[in-house]
Structure formats: structure tokens, C-alpha cells
What we know:
Number of helices: 9
Order of helices and strands: EHEHEHEEEHHHHEHHEEEEE
Helix content: 25-40%
Amino acid sequence: MRVLVTADLHFDIARSQRPAEELARRACSQPADALLVVGDVGGTDLAILGRCLALFDSFRGLKMLVAGNHDLWTHGDCSLARYERQLPAVAAGHGFHYLDAGPCYLGDVAFVGSVGWYDYTYADPTLGVPDRFYQAKVAPGAARLTGHRHLLNGYDDVAPDMLRVGTRWMDGVFVHLPFDDRHFCDRLLEKLRCHLAETADRAGTIVAAVHHLPFEDLVVRRGQPSWDFANAFMGSGRFGQALLAEPKVRFVFTGHSHCRGRVTRGGLTCVNVGSTYTQKRLEVLNLNGVHTGGS
């Protein structure tokens, strides 16, 4: 069985469109049994997401999609409704199975997936940034400029160097959930564990896709406060723990950070596809137990 995997096509961004089109042509022109797209296909406009999925209309195998955080972006509408109702409808309209809603099977192989999320456990404690800034998704320097001064007023617990860091994580503007990030993580983990239990009873091998990084070893730390502040939003190791708890999970694919990487835990291999805004990568998985890499 031959599975093609990509991620982070970002078709809503002009400089990503031609590379995404070229990748789709490559994917559709080669023999494969399945295609897996691991999140961040579009942004606030669902029509753009649909146009990106349509690039794969001529792919003749099984097509699967998981959501990315950008796919949950809206201009004020509920992101949970986007995640649970609108995205699966768009996916189905283009022949994609939406793994966030349920597993998919191909022979003795099961595919499970989740957008994953973050709970700030990848935050760098040496930055001296209190939790409230991660919840607001603005670094202390940005809080001085963007209407978040209440995060600073009356407090003296911010490292002085961080007052010069103006990083802002844009999920704080465009993701509108009815609960906080940690609660969303809990919900997603419960669903993923249920899907893993279901597939373990039916399949010999499980392939998983989680958009946010499920293993901390994939987090890139540069020693630059503006970059390292954003690492709090890269994912949560609890997803990795859930995957490791099911021994039939052999391969996991992720994206989100745009940094190619690979970690191995026992019999599990996790690959970050590593697409950037201008260079889209296609991983190839041969399910005879050999991962053949990508381009």
C-alpha cells in the first residue's frame, strides 16, 4: 500500500498557491492508494479551502483530511461549528474523508486523525512569561500596543527583556471557541482515544495524522524570544502519549511548524512533513513497514 502525505498547503496565501498546485499535479500523476492532507489547507474563506481540495479531484485513491488551526479561523463565527460541521461538509464535497470526525479503513490499515491543539506545555519557562499571556496569545511587548494592557497593569512578574518582544499568535484573533485551549485539548484527546480504541479492534496497523506537534522533540528552539514564545502554540505531548499507548500505531504525520523533522519512539515513527509557504513537500509511505521519505 502506497500513501502520499502532505500538509500546510495554505492555499489562502498568494505565495503558496502555485507550489500547492504543483504538488497536487505531482500527487495526482503518480500511482498511490491513498492521500493524506494534514491540516492548514486554507483560512477563513471556506471557498478557498474547497478550491484547494479540488486540485486533487483526479486522484483516484482514498483521500483523507485533518484540520489545521488555520482551517478553524473565522471572522467572528464559532470555530467549533467550523470544525465539527462546516469542514466535514466541504471535505465530503470533494471526496475527502474527514478524519477528525472518524477513522477510515483501507484493507487491514486504519487511519485516524485530529487537528491536535496546544496547552502551553511546550512553552519555554526561561522566558519568564506568565500563563495569562499565552492564554491571550500575545507576548508582553505586544500587549503594550494591542489593547491588552490589562495583562500588564498591576503586575510586576514579567521579565524585562520580554517587554521588547512583540510576537502575536493569530489564533487569538481568528479562532473563536466556547472554551479555553486546555479544555479544547481535553475534548480532542478524548475523541482521539476513542478512535484509537475503535481502530485497534479492527485493524492490524494504524496510521495517525495530527496537525499540531504531538512530540516535544519536534519543537524547534532557537534561543530567540520572539520565536520561542510561539513554541507554546506548537502542540501538546499529551497527543503523543495517547498515540504511544496504542501499540498498533506505527506511523504519525504532523505539520504546523513548517519545520521538517522525524522522531522515533519504540515501534512508532513520527514525521513532520515540513512544508513551508513556498515549498510544499510530499511524503511517501509504503506500508510494508518501510517509510520511503519524500520530496
